[in-house]
Amino acid sequence: MNTPHTRPRPIQLAGPLRWILPVTLVLLFLAVLLWLPLQARQMESNERQEQLIADTLWVEQAVRFELDRNAESAENLAVEIAAGSIEPAAVQARIDQMRKVARELTRIVWLDDAGQVRASSGTPSATTEDSREAALLARQTGNGRYSRPASIGGRGAQMDYHLPLMRDGFNAGSLVVSYDLDALLDETVPWWFAQDNAVALLDADDKVVARRESAGPGRGVYTHNRPLDLNGAELLLATNSVKAAPRLLPNLLVGSVVVLALGLLASLAALWRDVTRRMAAEGALRQQMAFRTAMENSMITGLRARDLEGRITYVNPAFCRMVGLPEEELIGRAPPMQYWAPEAMGEYQQRLAEVMSGHVTPQFETVFQRSDGQRIPVLIFEAPLIGTDGQHTGWMGSILDISERKHAEELNRQQQEKLQASSRLATMGEISSMLAHELNQPLAAISSYTSGALNMLSGEGGKPVDADTLRPALEQAGLQAQRAGQIIRSVHQFVKKRDPDRQLIEIPSVIDGVRGLMELQARRFYVAIQVQAEASLPPVRADRMMLEQVLLNLTRNGVEAMQDIAPELRILRIEAHAANGRVEVSVIDNGHGIDDDVDACLFSPFFSTKAEGMGMGLSICRSAIEFHGGTLNHRPNPGGGTVFTFSLPAEPGVA
User: Fold this and answer.
1) Which CATH architecture has domain 38-241?
2) N or C terminus: fewer CB in 10 A for the chain?
3) Angle in degrees, 0-180, between the axes of helices 467-495 and 403-430, rounded to the nearest 10
4) What confidence tens digit (pLDDT) does each residue in 450-475 have?
5) Cα torsion through 620, 623, 624, 628, rounded to 10
């Protein structure tokens, strides 16, 4: 009987054991991946250092060869001089030829046994103490000797080579060869080496006496020093490469391996992520939905989405609370909407038509009506909704309830009106004593005229009084009563609280309206007021009372600024003219002017240079002028004092 063959099951590692082998291989691969660039970097660094040492040895040999060649030429000449087989003229020609061949030689001198110069070539220079000491040791030993390098006269370092002239065992003079060490490096260090390295000569104290840095200073990564042991001078040839340390990825091969390895790791990570993503997708989706719901419930900004036909497709809880309607009554609703206010229905329809045609207004203000009938001002931001395929699917709007902002703006407007009223009352308080004096004159005149009339009516003998006799006195009393009434009415109109009322007004009439109050202030300090206004000034659209307050504040400041100058200079000028479609009014005083430290905060609220001042006058003036679309500025008066100028736009098309 045949028995069926059973396929053996593959051995499967359970639990975390199935991850041990791939994780171990990945860690081993990462270790090799990290070791390979580091090893390549170290090898390149060693190679550069070895090349620098070899090149430094070559430069050292070049420097030694140049010094030995010059020393050999000097010794040959010294032998001929000591033997007397060469004339002084030939010596001069020889040393000239030596300097022409070796540019690093700055001077060659032939000295006799008395130290006198017999022949020389090059620029004379002072002799250092080190050079004199080297010359003495050269004569004592009978051998050539180098002096220690030294800087002379702020120039580059110089080194002298002293070669004694020996004749029959006696000193017959010496040859002195002077080296410019910077030129020595320029002549002996090849250009290709100088392009990659900074070369320097250091003395026994490690002080740089010469250098050549064609490519800039060295980086200090690759360095090598070689001593130049000269007879009498200890020099150190120091080379410092301008190359930086090799980068972690020094060549294309290592870079390619790294890129491929990173790609392999990325593929493995993507595979791992895909497996784990399938397991976590459901939980992530639930978490995202919970987060989105919590975010929508916590927002105070209303969100509303509409399709291309204007139907609402989405609202958040904040929008529902704003209009007082549940979500189910809003979703799928087509215009007109329940929250549209009846008085703004035309505006809604016009905006909806613009949205449907694609001409949406990104930001605008309107009014919504809550379900309980309450109106709320809102600020709406509209933006197009673009689907994943790039198609325009509708509009998303963000709605802000700006009731608090509107309330704050209204409170601010009321505060400004109160400040202006307070300023007018303060102004009237300051001139109250002058006002009483001004009223006293017409009242006294009225009393005098009426008393005279009464006396005439009760005259002696009981004779009737003719009406023509009483008429002049009564007419004068009436005129004085009108004068007093006009003063009271102007004060009442100035301090009366009312809403701003913009009308077409003439600037000269505004000046005349407060002329009496300005003169009351001016009489206190004996100031004369001069008014100069151009004929046929165009009218401006403004609130008369605000402009009168500005004029009164500016003239009061100008009058008070002139209280300490000579009486004949106390003239306050008010000028008005038209320029560039605007009407400019200037108040010019001859007072003390404005200091620089005061100028910076002159228009700041609550800033005042007066002990009893509130610091609100100029601030209110600027606010009032800017309320009318104008500007208020000031500048120094060339003759001393200050010029305050405010300009207002002239009403177009009105002659």
Assistant:
1) 2-Layer Sandwich (3.30)
2) N
3) 140
4) 766 666 666 544 556 566 666 666 66
5) 170
